[in-house]
């Protein structure tokens, strides 16, 4: 069960858009037509391969209901990737995307700035890879949000876009894997600092510090800088 | 804490100048100073003094200064010293413990409330403002020890006093938990260690916070700290880490899954491999630490967890060597008893219901001389009354777990009891159990009986085998059966604990086994013993349980009676109960069992919870059996009662039914889940079936098309590309092209067919003309004869005229026939040339098609069928091409023939013209009329020729058509990626390149 990298994901979006079903389809390859409301946050995991490297995905599936919003916010920080899901048959879930995005961007980095003083590149961190997902693509007859609209939104906000169906499993695999690929590429480009846990990335046990010291002095030392003012 | 105490004492110790103001006055003055002073120094001094008074005058400071102190935290945040004083004051005010100096003062001034209640009250006041907590959390950003450390302490105090409120507030503060988690990385150990306590308080009974802490790499942090501290030898910090980790995992399936998926179980192994190597012995702290470590393992595989999680955890544990490490700890010498007990229980949970792990346990050998199986060694301590009670309980639980859902294990145990395998030199499990059963120690009896009953649970085969067990009680006396011996023990009137054990063993034995019931009823003393006991009138609680057990056993004899025993058939037993005991007494005695506290306790969990022998009554598996059979037992024995008893419902019965309903509910849920999964599989299969059907349809469609093409049928389906093929876009493309090609081929075929028709028609016309020409010839001969007749009549007269006429005719033929014929021939030659060209093209096409079929290798197995189809198509095309070629060859042949015919026609015309000229020359005078007729004939002929010419043009058009079709066909082939050399359609090259490029791309993708 060794892996080269471990990525943490979160799945966010309005209630009932099929977040838990996406996760279930991805981890267990099955579809449950009637799914209980998620309480708080649920966990799932799977191994994938990118570039001949084993990558472990740890996925936190959050509750979409407003009541749990404060709990789920705690998971933004520390996630390398987010799957932002809406339902193509319900316009309002699409309309709420901006709010979700703001939430994600706000909470994924609020603490980061303090943690990483002196590391400018991380300063305005929104390195989190966000994949926009229009779910329930099998229900084309009841479609309320055009594919083009999703594409346009994604383009505008710098997200990756896909339409999926947790029911037929169409594009589900791709959604998770493409997100991982995006993160992987960012690591290769040196955008992500893999030694900072708050980024939601871990190096596997056998791949320990080969490129240490490459990204300056993150983490623990950064915290001490706070006391000097 | 001592540090602070000393500090405060020092401060308090300094004598106040002047007269002694009361505490209230001083606090008042200090608050005023802190609030109104403009100088930071003054405010700082005020805070320092407040802090000093916050212990002794806790009520005063708490009641009056809290707002002021909070304001200081907000306003003077940048001065770490004043913040430190303010927070320290709050720590003192909210402290849950009572201060010695406060007690003195409290008695004097207020005589007042308990200090722990005080702390809680102040906590409530402070927590009411959510902003206060947010302020504290934000203060954690300060790195300065003076700020960070007391803040952690204050938060811990608040959490201890009002956990629920605080947890809720921290949960909604953005990054609240994150900031607390960051403290675990603090390089100052004091802060890190206090953070551990803080997090333990924070995560107590709050699933959401537990999950967030786990998400924030909680496990990693904790494992790092434990490792850094030296595992079990690491002191109290390790204990704190383990407590926190237990908090995160207990009753939290999501976190348990995360623990397993995060490969943390593997890291647990090192917990148990290292302590054995260390030389430090077993300090109290180490024992505690290992105790928590074992708890951690048990939390993951507890029988109360979801079965799926337990199974996967058990698997990982055996794979990563954790089970091996635990068993070696079990076998190690010098391990303290409580740790050994815990280890046995942990191993038990790890093997429970997991066949692989149970097998591993069977194969385990104890390091004794001679080496014995670990099970035997463990059983030895179970039946040894010198061993500690809790250890013996743990061994019984271990034995139960070993046999739980393990038919092989049950068979092995029963096997050791059977006569043929008894080997005197070896100590076996069976021997030990029997010796336990008959030992004078009632606890041993109980343990051994329960252990034996577990080798019979849900296993009809072993119930029968056990009947064959014979025992030798004393030397010389004949052997008796085990069941007989059990009855003898019961009748001997032994201790109640022994009877519990034996009765439970017998109940398990008889349940669902008519053979065992039959054997039991043949024991003459059995039924009388039971009836006597059921009807006994003792009111001791334990005796009543015993009566209940007897009633249950009697009930089982009725319920599972196959009637083979004539003296005690079901009916006669029923009669016996009614007569001797009374139906109501019977059901009442039976009901006594489920009414006892011991029953409820034992039914709750499979683990043995008894702390001392007096707590031993029921076994968990027996409770399960009793619950499932109690109702049917009453119904079987007293059918007349079953109906009437519904009027009166005792609370115990309600709980019983509730239990049953709960069980059924669980079963229904399980079934439902199973059903759902089955349904999912079914729908998936349906989907697959549909896909397959669609594919089949597609294939058959294609097949039809191919067949149609083969039969050169005119009705060719337009295209096969309409058939959906979502799985493979490339497949779509291919089938598109294929469809086009096939339809093109079809049109080509049709064209050919039409051409053949045209040619036939042409041929027919030719034939007609030929016959006409023959007719003309005959007429001319006739006219010749006429002329010869006329020649006799007049020779000179018409000489000039006939000469003139002959001249005319010749002129006419010269002017008309010859150039037209020449034209015709030229056209024919052209046609021939075109046909030849086309022919060679077709030859080329044929070559390329055959190349395509050869060059298109099967890209991969999935597309194999499709490629095969393409090949077939290509072959088809090849066949059609050769057909085309043949057709063309025949066409050319026909045209050649036609040419010959035309030539013949021409020569015939010439000869006829010549003959006509001769005739005119001969006729002279009377030839005018003949000439005229010849002229009209010639005109007719001319017309015919015209027709011929037109038809030839038609043919030419058709050939051109065909040619263009061939060009199109060639283009299609290009689309397949084949090089088709032709100079005529340069203008289409651009498009062709695109097509072939796309095809190449597809090929690349496939490869």
From TrEMBL, chain A:
Q: Which SMART domains match?
A: RAB, RAN, RAS, RHO
Family to which this protein belongs? Belongs to the small GTPase superfamily. Rab family.
**Protein name listed in UniProt:** Ras-related protein Rab-2A
Q: Where is the composition biased (Gly residues)?
A: 213-229
Among SUPFAM superfamilies, the record links this protein to: P-loop containing nucleoside triphosphate hydrolases
User: What would be one Pfam family of this protein?
Assistant: Ras
Region of interest called Disordered, as start-end residue ranges on this chain: 207-229
Organism in which the protein naturally occurs? Petrolisthes cinctipes
MF terms per GO, please?
GTP binding; GTPase activity
TrEMBL record, chain B:
Q: Which Gene3D superfamilies match?
A: Leucine-rich Repeat Variant
**Region annotation Disordered: residue ranges?**
95-115, 711-744, 975-1007
Membrane topology reported for the UniProt record:
Peripheral membrane protein
Q: Which residues form the Uso1/p115-like vesicle tethering protein C-terminal domain?
A: 877-991
- Where's the Vesicle tethering protein Uso1/P115-like head domain? 356-636
The chain's coiled-coil residues are: 682-709, 881-908
Alphabetical GO CC annotations of the entry are: endoplasmic reticulum; ER to Golgi transport vesicle membrane; Golgi membrane; Golgi stack
Q: Name one GO biological process term.
A: Golgi vesicle docking
Question: Any keyword Electron transport?
Answer: no
Q: What is its main location?
A: cytoplasm
Top-rank taxon, per record: Eukaryota
Instruction: List localization entries.
Output: Cytoplasm; Endomembrane system; Golgi apparatus
Task: List all Acidic residues biased stretches.
Answer: 98-108, 979-991, 998-1007
Q: Where is the composition biased (Polar residues)?
A: 711-724
Q: Entry's PANTHER family?
A: GENERAL VESICULAR TRANSPORT FACTOR P115
The protein, known as: General vesicular transport factor p115
Q: Which organism is it from?
A: Petrolisthes cinctipes (Flat porcelain crab)
